[in-house]
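User: Please predict the structure of the protein below. I'd like the answer in structure-token form so I can feed it into my own downstream comparison script.

Assistant: Understood. Taking the following sequence of 71 residues as input:
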Amino acid sequence: MKSEIKQLNQCKRELKIEIPADQVTEEYEKILDQFAKKTKIKGFRPGKAPKSVIKSMYTADIKESLMNTIV
């Protein structure tokens, strides 16, 4: 992970963070698996819903969890 801090003025800073794509993909898959195990979706047994269905229903929650985990 590469980070850079730029001072804009006395009170403000700009932070740039670069994270390798393979690390993001790995964490994304872990979080997606966690959501798949926990969620109950009508028409599927608990924990057996396809990942594509989980992705479409919980995109915002997965992104938020990913950002919290990585950063």
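That's the full token string. The chain has three helices and two strands.
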